[in-house]
Amino acid sequence: MLSSTESRFAVDAVCEAALVARRVQSELVTEALTKGDKSPVTVGDFAAQAIVARRLAESGMTVPLVGEESAADLRCESGAATLEQVTHFVRTIFPTATPAEVCDWIDCGAREPGDEYWTLDPIDGTKGFLRGDQYAVALALVQGGRVMVGALGCPELEKACEPNRGGVGTVLCAVRDGGAYWRDLDVSGCSPSCAWRRLQVSGVTDPAGTRMLRSVEKGHTNLGAIDHLANAMGVTAEPVGMDSQAKYAVLAAGGGEMLVRLLSEDRPNYREMVWDQAAGSIVIEEAGGRVTDLDGKPLDFAKGRTLAANRGVLATNGHLHDAALAALREIGA
Predict the structure, then answer these.
(1) What is the pLDDT of residues 188-247, one digit of tens each?
(2) Looking at the annotation, which residues are catalytic?
């Protein structure tokens, strides 16, 4: 099921970008890093997007890339030092890359989505990356507003659901109507001999047993409302704290039953970016789960760079979805 040109490209590109991100983390995230300094993740974001964009150009596919980053700041004098670092890491894959080429590759992601596009979050989980914890490289192919292929590279996640700093990591891939699978990220270079294993969500049906996957980063959702939601559902199981779309991998692998992106009280009109949800959503769906917005509507990826037609996100193992939607209505979320 993972033999199509698109799925092979997605896996190879995500593996390469994730391993470069790991290299950036190991070299730049040190104890000497001052609090609030996000420069390592900035370098990793740019390098990963440049690499994926270059690989997409080489693939012969004419589908555009919609990425999170723009090279505008790197082209300014104030961005020269960052560009030098980004180019250094890109050259670990493309030894002859020039700073100008790196900027051009990054800017391939600045396009507006059309009917068909790839969307990339080069490093999802800024705080996790800086703590040496969970982060993910997320790449997905969208056609007609639906995600058709999605891949996640999770360097600090083992067996798709076990946090393990410095371990072998996990790459996951899902194809619409073709299932979702995982294998080791393979630090030796993503050997094709690595066996793929099928992902399957958990079979928990009792809301009390719902393990809620919750962001460590408090600014990403409405924590108070999540507590109200858990109470409304009668949840007694301990939540699982985790950054990034690694949560989506864990849910798909049966390591949790629900995650929710509620609207923060100070940003009631916020809409999710397509790259924050595309890859993770298809991985969960193809593992047997269900993903909608807070009103129960399917996510619509045909409205530009945001999910403009959707409020928040609810993902579950499927068995608990209706109960979660009912609880959301009860608390007025």
Answers:
(1) 544 554 789 999 999 999 999 999 999 876 655 566 789 999 999 999 999 999 989 999
(2) 45, 126
Q: What is the pLDDT of residues 235-259, one digit of tens each?
A: 999 999 998 999 999 999 999 999 9
The CATH fold assigned to 5-198 is Fructose-1,6-Bisphosphatase; Chain A, domain 1 (3.30.540)
- The answer to whether the annotation marks 68 as part of a ligand binding site is yes
> In the chain, what are the domain boundaries?
5-198, 207-331
Whether residue 123 is annotated as binding a ligand: the answer is: yes
The residue whose two tokens read 């250094």 is 88
What is the rounded distance in angstroms from the CA atom of residue 214 to the CA atom of residue 74? 34
Topology of domain 207-331 in CATH is D-Maltodextrin-Binding Protein; domain 2 (3.40.190)
CA distance 313 to 291: 7
276 annotated as belonging to a binding site for a ligand:
yes
Q: Residue for token digits 């693939």?
A: 59
Residue matched to tokens 């994730």:
18
Q: What is each CA distance from 318 to 35, 201, 210, 286, in whole angstroms?
A: 40, 8, 12, 11
Question: How far is the C-alpha of 301 from the C-alpha of 147, rounded, in Å?
Answer: 8
Cα 309 → chain centroid: 20
What separation in angstroms does the CA of 25 have from each of 38, 89, 106, 134?
11, 11, 19, 12
